[in-house]
């Protein structure tokens, strides 16, 4: 087994470490207490989905919580949500739920708005072969602080891709339809649900590192949801994007480039991690790898590498402060060979910048 792991994985530094080891590191990374609590609640909610045990929902959701999922429809109240989100497929002994692009904002009035991508895997390992079902999606959730306690009050989820053994859920979930805009009737509406529109000014401060890394998440949210006012917010007027076959100069060229990419698929999902960021006064540079669990190029999943975090490319981001706000002034997209980093199936959220692990210094040169 050890020889097989060394062959499949870039490294095994994370071997033996579980979600419990990493959760406190995120509490230290996020500067705002509201942001920390919203992150904890979201992780607990996703663990309900991963484990298929919804007994903790009463501590996560308000009694009047509404959940809207493009896969299973609208549910109102905790009992209905628990029934609607139960795994409808066969028993799976490989169960993964991974958070990407996490953003949370809160207001002085006790309102919170949070978004995130997830990439999930439900698979059967029969001891000889692996039978995986992969699916990704976007969450955009509302929170309220009631009697001093944060609770989820409205959960929204749009499926962005499904791959592999979708017979596990076919006729039980609404899956992607290539003939339909966005692949299905969308639950999330960026102009009404994006955290930056719902709560324009976060009531809590953020570190420079948090602000720089969030610029990419904001740009991606706008691009993937067709909100091209949002994509303009995090960039400077003379922004330069280096993307083959040519470079794109200025906001107009950059935004038209993004609009052209938006049409290439039913639904985009640019999932990024926070890896390296260096701040020097009013300038910064960051490296943010991408991973697309359903796009491995010339690789395939097997019984070993299914237990991993996948990297297929990344974005090098240069930012500077203008009038007290960080903005991107240059970006480069870089493809990397498909890489598997070992990660325990229990881990919900893993960013190298937060929890350590493999470094990508070479890509920042």
N- to C-terminal distance: 35 Å
Record field, number of beta strands: 12
The amount of beta strand, in percent, is 35-45%
**What's the tally of helices?**
10
Average predicted confidence as pLDDT:
94
Describe the structure.
The protein has 365 residues and is an alpha+beta fold. 25% of the residues lie in helices and 36% in strands. It is built from ten helices and twelve strands. The chain has helices spanning 2-8, 19-29, 33-51, 57-60, 78-85, 190-193, 195-198, 208-224, 250-262, 352-355; strands spanning 61-69, 73-76, 94-106, 111-125, 130-146, 149-164, 235-243, 246-249, 276-280, 283-290, 308-322, 325-342. A six-stranded mixed beta sheet has the order 2-1-6-5-4-3. The chain has a six-stranded mixed beta sheet with strand order 8-7-12-11-10-9. β11 (308-322) and β12 (325-342) form a beta hairpin. The longest helix has 19 residues, at 33-51. The chain is globular and about 50 Å long. The two termini are 35 Å apart.
